[in-house]
Amino acid sequence: MDRALLPYLFVLISVIVVVRWSVSLNSYSGAGKAPMYGDYEAQRHWMEITYNLPVSQWYMNGTNNDLQYWGLDYPPLTAYHSWLCGVVANRVNSSWVELLKSHGMESYDHKLFMRYSVLVVDVLIYIPAAIAYVFNEVSADTQVKKLAEASVFLLYPGLILIDYGHFQYNCVSLGFALLAIYFLDKGRDLWGSIMFCFALNYKQMELYHAAPFFFYLLGSAFRSKKENWFFKLVKLGVVVICSFMLCWFPFIFDINQASQVLHRLFPFARGIFEDKVANFWCSISVAVKLKNFLDQQQLVFLCLGTTVVALLPSCLHLLVKPSTRTFKYALVNSSLTFFLFSFQVHEKSILIAALPVCTLLHYHPVTGLWFLHITTFSMLPLLQKDGLLLATIATMLLYHLATTQVYNCGTFLEKPSANGKNNIVLKTFFWLSMLGCAAIWIVSLTLRPPARYPDLWPVIISLYSCGHFLLFLCYFHWKQFTWTIAGNEQSAKNIKRTKQKQKKFN
Amino acid sequence: MENCWSVFGLFTAIKLLLIPSYRSTDFEVHRNWLAVTNSLPLEKWYFEKTSEWTLDYPPMFAWFEFFLSQFARFFDPNMLVLRNLKYASFNTILFQRLSVIVTDLVYVFAVKGFCDCYSGKKTDKDSPSNGSSLILAILLLGNFGLILVDHIHFQYNGFLFGVMLLSIVRIYQGRHMEAALWFTTLLNLKHIYLYIAPAYFVYLLRHYCFNSKKDGGVAWKSFSLQRVIHLGFIVVMVFGVSFGPFIAAGQIGQVLSRLFPFKRGLCHAYWAPNVWALYNMADKTLAIIGAKMGKISKDELQGASMTGGLVQEYSHTVLPSIPPVVTLICTVVAILPGLVHQWMYLKGPRGFVKCLTLCALGAYLFGWHVHEKAIIIVIIPLSLLALDGEKYGRIFLLMSTVGHFSLLPLIFTKAETPIKICMLVAYQGFAFISLNKYYNRKSQGFSLPLLNKLESLYTLGLVPLLLYTECVHRLIGLQQRLPFLPLMMTSVYCAIGVVYTSGLLYKTVLMEGRLVKGQKDLKQQ
What we know:
The complex is a heterodimer of chains A (about 500) and B (about 525).
Chain A: H1 6-24, H2 39-52, H3 76-92, H4 108-137, H5 143-154, H6 157-167, H7 170-185, H8 189-202, H9 207-223, H10 229-247, H11 255-265, H12 280-284, H13 296-320, H14 324-341, H15 350-360, H16 365-378, H17 380-385, H18 389-406, H19 424-446, H20 456-482, H21 485-505
Helix pairs in contact in A: 1-5, 1-6, 2-3, 4-5, 4-7, 5-18, 6-18, 7-8, 8-9, 8-10, 9-10, 9-13, 9-14, 13-14, 14-15, 14-20, 15-16, 16-18, 16-19, 16-20, 19-20
Chain B: H1 3-17, H2 25-39, H3 59-75, H4 90-122, H5 132-141, H6 144-154, H7 157-172, H8 176-189, H9 197-209, E1 211-212, E2 218-219, H10 225-248, H11 252-259, H12 275-293, H13 298-306, H14 324-344, H15 348-366, H16 375-385, H17 390-405, H18 417-438, H19 453-460, H20 462-475, H21 485-511
Antiparallel strand pairs in B: 1-2
Helix pairs in contact in B: 1-4, 1-5, 2-3, 4-5, 4-7, 7-8, 8-9, 8-10, 9-14, 9-15, 12-13, 12-21, 14-15, 15-16, 15-21, 16-17, 17-18, 17-21, 20-21
């Protein structure tokens, strides 16, 4: 990267922070809703627990740690992060993390502290990762265009709304995952696997991305010309095991501890899905109540089986033809598959599928934007509950305008896009789908649902989104299977041709 | 030119995001005016005093509030009740914020007009995509001061500057009657724009009512009485529509006493960074020195420093106190050179904008009870000139950086601090980068683009100043003992920059002599 680019980066980061911080002025999940509050209180509670209790009691039920009240159920890195935040919080105002007494702690200053804690990790991990990724990925364009693409990457509304509005630290796990993708792109497989281990150990939901990482690394090790494949696999294995040991260090010496943590991370005792999620099981539950035929264990196996079967095609393809591009398609397919078919899915988990789509936006501006809009739309009931409706509208507007401006893909009349074609049919469907979203949105805001179906609007929203996700799953599978390096060269030629045409035009 | 609209869309999204942010008392002021104009008949508008925030804008603004209040009832009728002081339901906030965002459309319309006539001039020389109109659109539509004051602090400046810019655009287009119409309307919306009225008066008289001789001098015999009457008719008509009903009801005295309250002090609560800020500072310094030397008693000093901050009246200890008349004389003296220069060396619409800037600047530097917000009246016309040569680019960069920085204390809440700082960095960063690119200058050594070493040093000095005022001051525990020190430091530091840049602007504008042959302005007829 050029030194002359630094001022530009400065401006870019400032703009990004303005947007993020404006969202953070809004309310957060569970604000003022005693006795359980929401994710905001959960994160604060973890700071309290980790700061006051010894490591061995973090995941254990006890008099000072009631696991029924937002017990820690994320992997160790989250716990360490909470501990660090707890230390700082104690310095600033010790009543924020006072054991037991601080439950339901809410104040102007405390909210600021929590918001800052998100901003810090975002600026340290996610924002640099995104900028590094975009600058590494796109080679042919000018620096200013790359900056613009980086800003689009960072303006994706879903993540901003969940992290700065609803309140979570997704930017950490997704940031690590993005760094892992970046390193794999650069051919630094070892660093990539370390980063992915961190992501996985920050949030177990990163398992949605795990299969493609595994098969890509395996596949590229077999095809590696520089190294012996066995040696490479051993190196990778050692690195992965070491990073896991590092993350789990306080817990690995006691089998009880380790199993308790694992038990907390994968709570199969909970329901098949939470609230109304735009996934397959929730959607078919409108017609068929699976709970009536199957018991808990059978449900788990059903989910597991479906997910594995749905995962196989894209993973096997990746194993046979590993390339950085198919790897990203496989990431989308894998995370979408998990979101649609796995057990115990949250509506926020769609962010995990959104990340690889963000990385592909350069190649598929219209479909990418379409997918990303639907992801934000699918979280609408949640965002509305948190009082983030205005922020949602504003960030979506911002994102739409920024994307269409940067990729020049907004209207039907623009010059040919990077693929060398101006796909009118695609755009017609895009706008029809957006109109559908807007219509559902407006109706759900203005009309009351009939008394018999109080959840009518959330169900319609999740059905509508789920339909889209299923189609997108097929689309990205198709993209993955048809993508070849030769095809890529073809489109590179197309780009050259259109550029020449544009030159003539000018 | 779809540029303007997409830029506007992006900024609108940011404005929407700022809806839940901090609001100053101006929010309640405008809510009260909605209630006053909606629930009372015209005759009582300027007598109503249930709230302490009585109506003190000219009648057309009152009508504007009346117009808005027609829509307000659909959001929350309770905001229109006079007794509901400090009423701020979610719908009220939403409505008032949205009304600012929507009325900004006037501004974007005017900016689009300006960009069109600006790029229209350039096309014959450069390629159509030299980016000048995009730079102008972003500099004008994303103006930091406007977003801060309108969309966080809460006022309707975007709309008002829209009307002002519209009249300037009409002058660029040679449609002088319309320009006069829009400017008179503006005066009847907010009377602070009286300060720039002399520029309009001189320009229209000189350009519209007289012709020029071949050497650029005044052709005295070409005076057109008919045109004077036309202009006079417009002015009288607009004022008649606005003030007529009040004159008819015999209330004009009451209205004027509301519009011009002379009870306030020389400086606003927080000293706007102008000449008087430096004057106050000098007084303070002398008082402290005097006390050290034993010439002034401790009590006197105590009194002076106690009232030094947020109290409206500042009594000078050593230097003579300034009565309003002196500020008026100073302002007139500061404005005159620009006017005389415009009269003597007519330079077309651009010369007019320069003269207008000088008027606004003169009033800002020497006016009575100037608000820090008034710097926007200087910065907006300066941004129109930013692409008119490196000298003006440099002046714009300096003035906007310092002026916008001086607005920061306006938003003092902790939650909004990152927004105001990042927004300032983004705006000024964009200004520096884009102007540097536009003028294609290689920055030399450690100086900022277009600025010399000293100016760069001064500008970069704002960073430690900000650090001190925003955190160090509180961390070292001086908050209790010297609560107003950060404000004073900001004010004095910025005053130095504003006064210096003003000198630069005066010098640049006044040194431009008569038109050189063959360099005639395109718009001159």
